[in-house]
């Protein structure tokens, strides 16, 4: 990528990078380490036309999120619809994101118009994380 003068590195992380998740100390530490590494790498390769970014999903309507909702419902003896309603209520957008919305953000970060965007951690979370 450096030799060609153009490239994109996009890692997918978790909203836990911006707001550490409860009861996931080891996972949070790993996510923070990845973010730090990517930020360092971005500065090292930016002058060569290579961008490095981190995309942080919130609750995106995927099979994995459905499985997590089901597991929580089972663990807590609740209906999965109740778990999902509570999760949606925690998101200011009031819903789970659609995979194509997440994909559109990823596509932008990998595009030529995003050449001046590098070393960022961009959230696609419907406002879930309560920080800027």
Q: What average pLDDT do the residues reach?
A: 96
Number of E-state strands = 3
Tally of separate domains: 2
Q: CA-to-CA gap between the ends?
A: 31 Å
Helix content, binned percent: 40-55%
CATH architecture of the largest domain: 3-Layer(aba) Sandwich
SS-based structural class? alpha/beta
CATH class of the largest domain: Alpha Beta
Biggest sheet, in brief? 3 strands, parallel
Strand order within the widest sheet? 1-2-3
CATH topology of the largest domain: Rossmann fold
User: Mind telling me the C-alpha Rg?
Assistant: 17 Å
Mind telling me the CATH superfamily name of the largest domain? NAD(P)-binding Rossmann-like Domain
Count the DSSP helices.
4
Molecular shape: elongated
Q: Extract low-pLDDT stretches.
A: none
Q: What's this entry about, in short?
A:
It contains four helices and three strands, in the order βαβαααβ. It is α/β, with parallel strands linked by helices. The mean pLDDT is 96.
How would you characterize the overall build of this protein?
The protein is α/β, with parallel strands linked by helices. The protein folds into 2 domains: 1-58 and 97-121, NAD(P)-binding Rossmann-like Domain (Rossmann fold, 3-Layer(aba) Sandwich); 62-95, no CATH class. Helix content is 42%, strand content 14%. The model has no long low-confidence stretch (mean pLDDT 96). The protein has helices spanning 25-45, 63-76, 80-89, 99-109, and strands at residues 7-12, 50-57, 121-124. It contains 4 helices and 3 strands, in the order βαβαααβ. The two termini are 31 Å apart. Strands 1-2-3 form a 3-stranded parallel β-sheet. The radius of gyration is 17 Å and the shape is elongated.
């Amino acid at each position: 990528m450096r030799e060609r003068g153009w490239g994109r590195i996009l890692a997918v992380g978790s909203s836990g990078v911006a707001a550490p998740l409860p009861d996931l100390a080891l996972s949070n530490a790993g996510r923070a380490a990845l973010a730090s590494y990517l930020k360092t790498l971005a500065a090292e390769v930016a002058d060569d036309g290579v961008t490095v970014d981190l995309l942080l999903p919130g609750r995106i309507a995927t099979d994995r999120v459905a499985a997590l909702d089901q597991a929580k419902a089972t663990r807590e003896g609740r209906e999965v619809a109740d778990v999902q309603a509570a999760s949606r209520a925690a998101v200011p957008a009031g819903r789970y994101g659609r995979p194509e919305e997440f994909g559109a953000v990823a596509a932008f970060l990998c595009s030529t118009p995003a050449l001046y965007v590098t070393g960022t951690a961009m959230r696609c979370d419907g406002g879930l994380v309560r920080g800027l």
